Amino acid sequence: MAIKKKVLVVEDEALVAMLLTKNLRAMGFDVCGTIASGEEAVQVARAKKPDIIIMDRRLAGKLDGLDASRQIRQFTQIPIVFVTGYIDEKINLEIDQIQPAMYLIKPVPINEIKSAIDEMIGTG
Amino acid sequence: MHTKFSEKVSAVIFSEWGKLLGIAVLYYLVAYLGRFFVAQPESVATVWPVSGLGLSILLLRERKYWGQVIFVIFLTNLISNSTAGFSLPVSLGLSVTNCAESFLSAWMIRWLSRERIAFDRFRDLWALVSASVFTNALTGVFGAAVFTLGLGYSFWQTWLVWWVADGLGMILITPLVITWTSGEPFLHKPRRVYLESSLVLVGIMLVTIVIFSPFGNTNLPYLHSYTIFPLLIWSALRLPTRHVTLGLVILAILSVSQTVYMGGAREFIEAASHLRVLMLQLFLIVACFSTLALHLVVIERQRSEERLRESEERFSHMLTTSLDGVWIGNASRVTTFVNDRFCEMLGYTTDELVGQPLRDFILPEDRQVSDQQIDLRRQGDSTIYELRFCQKNGGIIWFRISATPVFEKNGEFAGSFGIFSNITERKQEEEVRAARLRLLEFAETHSLDELLQNTLDEAEKLSHSQIGFYHFVDDDQLSLTLQNWSTNTIKHMCTAEGKGKHYAINLAGVWVDCVHTRTPIIHNDYASLTHRKGLPEGHAPVIRELVVPVLRGEKIVAILGVGNKEQDYNDKDIEMVNMLADLGWEITERKRTQYALQQANEHMSATLDALPDLMFQVDHKYCITDYHTPFHETLYFAPEKFLGEDFRQLLPEPAAGLLAAAITESFETGFSRGTIYSLEIRGQLRWFEITAARRGKHDSAHTSSVALIRDITERKVAAEQLENALSDKEALLRELYHRTKNNMQVISAMLALQAENLTDEKATQIFQDVGSKIQSMAIVHQMLYRSQNLSSIDLKEYISALSDLLISTYRVRSHCNRVDILAESISASIDIAIPCGLMVNELITNALKYAFPAHHPGQLTVRLESRPDNNIFIEVSDNGIGFPPGYDVEQATTLGLQTVIALGQHQLQGKVNIFSGNGVTCQVEFPNNHAHT
Description:
The complex is a heterodimer.
Chain A lengths: L5 E5 L3 H13 L3 E6 L2 H11 L3 E5 L8 H8 L7 E5 L4 H8 L4 E5 L4 H12 L3
Parallel strand pairs in A: 1-2, 1-3, 3-4, 4-5
Chain B lengths: L1 H13 L1 H19 L14 H12 L5 H18 L4 H25 L9 H30 L3 H26 L10 H22 L1 H6 L9 H10 L2 H22 L3 H5 L2 H49 L3 E6 L4 E4 L1 H7 L3 H4 L13 H12 L4 E8 L5 E12 L5 E10 L1 H22 L2 H15 L4 E7 L5 E7 L1 H7 L8 E3 L8 H5 L3 E3 L21 E8 L2 E9 L7 H40 L3 E6 L4 E5 L18 H4 L4 H15 L1 E11 L2 E12 L8 E8 L1 H44 L4 H26 L5 E3 H16 L5 E8 L3 E3 H22 L6 E10 L3 E8 L16 H13 L3 E7 L1 E9 L6
Parallel strand pairs in B: 18-20
Antiparallel strand pairs in B: 1-2, 1-5, 3-4, 4-5, 6-7, 6-11, 7-8, 9-10, 10-11, 12-13, 12-16, 14-15, 15-16, 17-19, 20-21, 21-23, 22-23
Helix pairs in contact in B: 1-2, 2-3, 2-4, 3-5, 3-7, 4-5, 5-6, 6-7, 7-11, 7-13, 8-10, 8-11, 10-13, 11-13, 17-18, 17-21, 18-21, 24-25, 25-26, 25-27, 26-27, 27-28
C-alpha cells in the first residue's frame, strides 16, 4: 500500500481552504493541517513534517506566506507551492530564494494544484 | 544773702565798668606814688611808672576797648594832676599828653611786635625800647611845652627828664605787668627756683640799699652803682622773667627813692645836682635794658636748645623706631652708621655691619647697579633705586633705596645717606603677578601637560626650590594622579617613573599630609619626620618640602608641591605657591572648559552645516542679529541685508506677519512650531516652515529667538501629489467596490433566473442559497463604497440589512413570525465583515428554513455585542424545534454548519459554540483585529 503524501494547506479564506482540503483528500492526499496564519504554519510544519505545503501568499496574522516560508526554510527543505493573486518581479525574486518552491496564480483549478504537487514531489 | 552779695561784687568787679574803675583806681595810685620820685625840675618825676601802666593796660586790652581805657586814663590823669596842685590847663595838657603817649606807644609796640607781646623774646624788648624812645621823644615835647608854658620850666631840661622818666617807666613797668598777668600759674616751678629767686631779689634789694644809701656813700667809698650788675646778670641768666622784672622794679624803686631823698650812689652825689637824676635814669635804663636783653636772649637760646633737643630726640626716636633702615657710609661706601631696623632686615648686628663695605652685602648680580649709583652720588645726585641684598641666613631681600650724597664744607664728597625700605613682599607679588601673566599667555598656545610643567617651573623659581610636582586628586578623594614634575626635577632631581600613575592617598608619603589637614604643609626638616615612607628609586633626596592643596568647594582637587629650598620655607612661600597652584588649576579647568566648548562649537557648527535649514536669530525688536544658511539661491533677499534689519520690513505680507506671529509666540511661550508660509522667489512659489525657540528670559531686553526656516516646497509638492494620488485611488476603490457589488448582484440575478427554469426543488433551493450568499457579500461592498474610509463598515447596519434580505427571501417558506436584531454599532473591516456576513447568512438561513415548521412558528434573535479585549460576539438563536434527537453537532456533516465552524474558527480565529435546547443557539466570539498583512 502506497503511503499517502502529507500536504499542509495554509489558506486564510476558510471556504477556499475547506474546498481545497476536500479536493486534495479526494485525490488521495493526507491533508495534515489546514492553517490560516503564518505563525501557526511554522509550528505545524515543524511538528507534522509534511511532504509539501500549499501556501497562500496573503495570510491573516503578522507573517505572510513568504515570511512564514523563510522561517520554515530554517529547519526544513520541504517543497512549497505558493498560491497568489498576482505576481511581480519582487515576489518572483523572493520565491526564487525559497527553493524548492513554485507559484500558481489564482483562481487555481484543482487539477493545476495536483500537477504542481506531482511536479514537486512526484505522484503519491 | 552773703553768697548773693559776693556774687554781685564779683559781677561788678569783672564787668567792663568794674574793670575801668579798677584801672582808674590803680592808675591814680601809681600816679600818686610816682610823685614821690619827683626831683628836678620840680613836678617832673624821675621815673613815671604810670606811663608803663597805661601802656601795659592798652597792650593787654583789645583795640576795641582802647577808647574806653584812654578816656579813663585821661580822667584819672586830670584828677591826679588837679589834686597834685596843677592848674586846670596844665592838668588838661598833661593828661592829653600822657594819653597820647600811651596810645602811640601801644600802637607802635603792637606794630613792631606783630600784635603779640609776651616778653619771651628779644623782639618784644626791642619794640618796647623803640616805643619808649620815639613816642616819648615826641610826647615829651608836648609835656615839656605844658610845663614851660604853664609853670615856666626850662623846656629842654624838662623834655629830657620827661623823655627819660616816661621811657624808664615803660621799660620797668610794662614787662612787669605783662609777665605777671600772662595767665601762667604763679607757683608751678620747682621750689629751688623760688628759693634762688628770693635770694637774688633780696640780694638786689640789699645791694641797692647799700649802694644808694648814705652808708654806702660814706663808709664804702669803693662801692659804685655797677656793683649791682652781678646780681642783675645772675637774675637775667637764671631767674624766671617775672622775677627778673620784679628785681628791676625793686632796683628802680630803691635807687630812685634813695637818690631823690638821700642823694644816691657815690658817683651821683659827686656829680652836679641837675645831673644826678639824669645819671640815675641812665643807670636804670642801662641796667634794665641790659638785664632784660640778656635775659631774653638767654631764654631764646634756651628755647632754641630745647627745640633742638626735642628735634634731636624726635630724630633719634625716628631712627630707632623707623620701619625703614637707615644707612650712612663714607665715600668708599664703608658703613659708618646703621639703625636697628637695617640690622634686623639683613640679620646682622651693628658691629658686623659698621666698618664693612656695603657692597659686600649686595647680591653679586646687582653690584654693578650699586656702582653706577655711587657715581651719581659723587655728582651730587639723589636717586631712588631698587637692589637685592643677601641676608645673613642666606635669604634675599629687596630694598627700595632713597639715597642722598653728603659733602664736606669744602665740597668734597663725604659719603651717602640712604633710607632702605623692604620691598621684598611687593617684589614677590610683582614676580607672582608676572608669573601669572606668563602662565596665562603660555596657556594659550600650549598643552595642559606643558602648562602644568611650566606652572611648576614658575613655582620652583619663585620659592627658590629645586623640586616641583603637581597631582590631581580624584573625585572620590581617595586617590590621586601624578600629572607632572618640574623641568628641573626631571632633568636633575628625579628619574623615578610615575607620571600618570594613580596612588591611593593612604599609601602615599608625608607629602599628602596636606590632603588630611586640608591646609598647606611645610616640612622644613624632612629627615626628622617619623612617619615618612621613603622615596622611590631614582627620586632625589628631599631635604625640605612645601605642599599646598587646591580646594574647590568641599573637595581637594589638586596638590602642588615644591622642595629643597636652601632656606626654610615660610608663610610667604605658602602664599606664592598657593597662588600658583590655584592658578594652575584654574587654567586647567579653563582649558578643559575651552576644549569642551570647542568640541561643542565644532559639534554645533557641524550640526548647523548639516541642517538643511536657514537659521537666524532675532532680537526683541525683530531685528536679525545672526544667521546661518546652507542655501543662498532660494533666499528671498541677499544675506548681507539680514543683519541689523527688522525682517518685517524686508518680507512681504502675509509671510512677514506669519513669521512675526511665530517669533512672538516663541517670545511668549518659549517655542513655536508649524507655521508655514510661502514666498515667491525668482518667479517660483516656495513654501517654508518655521520653528522658533526663545533664548533668554521672557520680557528681557536680552531676549532673542532662534528660528529655523525649512524649505518644504518639495515636501509640499510631494504631499499634494500624494493627496491627489490617494484621492484617485479612493475613487478607484470606490468604483471597484461598486462594480464588485454590481457584478455580484448580476450573478445573483443570473442564479435566480436560472432557478426559475429548474424543476427540481432541491436545485432551486441551492440556487437560492448561493444567491443569498452572494447577496450578503454584495451588501458588504455596497456599504464599503458608501463608507467614508472605504475600509470598514458598521456591523450593526450590515447585519440588519442582511437580516432584512434573508427574511424577504425565505419569508414564503418560513413560519418565523418575528426577527429581533439586538446589535451594537461595531466598526469592522472587509476581512471581518465578509466571513461574518457569510456566517450570519448561514445561521439565519438555516433557522428560517428548518427551525419553524408549520406547526411550530416562532421567533429568531440576532445579537451583536462588543466584548472585552476588542472581541465581537454574535449570537443567532431561535425558539424553533431544535436539532433532531441524537444529532451531534461535533459530528455534523452539513455544509452549513461546517461553513460556520470554518469561518468562525479558521478564518476569524474565534470560538464557535452551537447548542440545542429550546431551539438552536449559535454563539461566535472572535477578535476584531483580523487583517491581512
